[in-house]
Amino acid sequence: MSDFATRLIAWQQEDGRHGLPWQVADGYRVWLSEVMLQQTQVTTVLDYYPRFLAQFPTIFDLAAAPLDDVLALWSGLGYYTRARNLHKCAQAVVTQYGGEFPRDPALVAELPGIGRSTAAAITAFSYGTRAAILDGNVKRVLTRWAGIDGYPGVKAVENKLWGLAHALLPAEQIEAYTQGLMDLGATVCTPKKPTCLTCPMNADCQARLSNRQGELPTPKPKKTVPEKSTVMLIIRNDAGQILLEKRPPTGIWGGLWSLPEVESTLIASELAAQQLGLKIELEPALPDFVHVFTHYKLTITPQPAYAIAVSALHESNAQWFNIDAALAAGIPTPIRKILSKTPK
């Protein structure tokens, strides 16, 4: 066993995180947590995870559930492609593997929404499979410890990190080692102000020895963030219901319920008549707000409107909801923000 692994395992057993609800040898629970923890803080997942398990206690329950139910429970976690792939993956594991994740990480990596690192984590924690992980936290730990320059998203740098991750793997205690890597990156070797004095690797960490903790990992080259804008129509009928549209299954907010959108308030009435079969009367617009996606910023203008003439809705994917039902449905975070401030 490498000295790196020995120190890391000892540190994890003494100072690492213990008692997290997904720290069990159960493939379904480990996989669910790994997907939720992608791009999401542990504190947030600790709120969603038990509610998800309460509704879908087994992978068979999740596979059999309607996608709408999955999206509704996922609402607020963001990155909704994860939820759609979660549903597809559950169905694949049930149909292809009888509800049990394979022990081979290469087979797990072929399942929907699972990459190489996530597959390794699932099999390591569930079966003790000797497989290397390389998520964002681990990349930061290894680049600093080994003093590796270059943005980790560049293929050559990533390949170098994978090679190092494999070379450092211990022959045993893979669960503690894998958890230790995650814990070290999350609690000690943090992006800003790492607590190097408490790190088990501080004696030979190349970044610390050269005072380059703030430089490594090499940041991603900055690009100008595109900006877009949209007008979201808050259309109410005589019963006080709100009109929502189900978005296409792919793309931003795929499969979620959302407010109808137009490019400008100037054409809102015309498009409502043409596309929805509604004659609407616009009310004063609400203040704009900005929602930030990974690749662009979206300025949203919430535009209240009243349906003064309602015929059969032209759009088969449009439906009237009362406010409580809308908030309970699978809706994106900006829509939830708008509707939570809309009078019932």
UniProtKB/TrEMBL annotation:
Keyword Glycosyltransferase part of the UniProt annotation: no
The note on the cofactor says: Binds 1 [4Fe-4S] cluster.
Q: Which UniProt keywords apply?
A: 4Fe-4S, DNA damage, DNA repair, Glycosidase, Hydrolase, Iron, Iron-sulfur, Metal-binding
Give an example GO biological process.
mismatch repair
| Catalytic activity, EC | 3.2.2.31
Q: Which InterPro entries did the record assign?
A: A/G_AdeGlyc_MutY, DNA_glycosylase, Endonuclease3_FeS-loop_motif, HhH-GPD_domain, HhH_base_excis_C, MIG/MutY, MutY_C, NUDIX_hydrolase-like_dom_sf
**Cofactor(s) in the UniProt record:** [4Fe-4S] cluster
Residue limits of the HhH-GPD domain?
A: 36-187
> Pfam families in the record, alphabetically?
HhH-GPD, NUDIX_4
Q: What does this protein do?
A: Adenine glycosylase active on G-A mispairs. MutY also corrects error-prone DNA synthesis past GO lesions which are due to the oxidatively damaged form of guanine: 7,8-dihydro-8-oxoguanine (8-oxo-dGTP).
The record's family statement is: Belongs to the Nth/MutY family.
Please report the name of this protein according to its UniProt entry: Adenine DNA glycosylase
Species of origin = Chitinibacter fontanus
